[in-house]
Amino acid sequence: MILATMLTSAASLLLTTATPPTRTLPAPRSDFYINASTTYFNPATLGPCPKAVVEATTADWQYLESNPADHYFGMFQNDSPTTARMEAVRQLAADFFSVDLTEMALMPSTTIAFNTVATGMVQVG
Fold it and tell me: pTM here?
């Protein structure tokens, strides 16, 4: 669910921004909620998210919490507004990875994704 929420948040930023802002690297410190006395050199797998990502993720999480039964499980219904939103995210992810939409699947959680792969491996042998 977190991955799907993060992808939805990233897509929200992309879908609502007609022209992405020009970025310079490294990003300015003001883009992050980092304490002024903290320095990051190489965060590897754990690092600060830009404010825009935190804010978009929070907004999407609030959307999910406003009706979890529809917004979480509703993504599997063909006519749900959430389905259209998730399909837009799936298309963005497919485009990013340069794969066909039929090769891209978004899973509600990492556990379900790993179990789906494991089940497929067991069934194939």
Answer: 0.55
